[in-house]
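Subgroup meeting minutes
Present: P.N., E.W., G.H.
Scribe: E.W.

1. P.N. recapped why we're keeping a running log of single-chain structure predictions: easier to compare across weeks, and new members can see raw inputs and outputs side by side.
2. G.H. added today's entry (66 aa).
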Amino acid sequence: MADIKGLVDKAKGFLGSKTGQDGLAKGADAVKKATGGKFDSQVDKGVDAAKKFAGGEADKSEGQPS
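Output recorded in log:
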């Protein structure tokens, strides 16, 4: 069986890196484009959860009406 804690630590490390953050942003943009913006708030919540999981601050401005 795989070392789950090791996998979680690797995921946190990747998501906390510049490459991981760029990947999250690009992935979120791709999903938003593919869905025509229909699920923007859910995508933003997912990105925020991933950032929080990685130990970073979630962007408070995303998903907020302007």
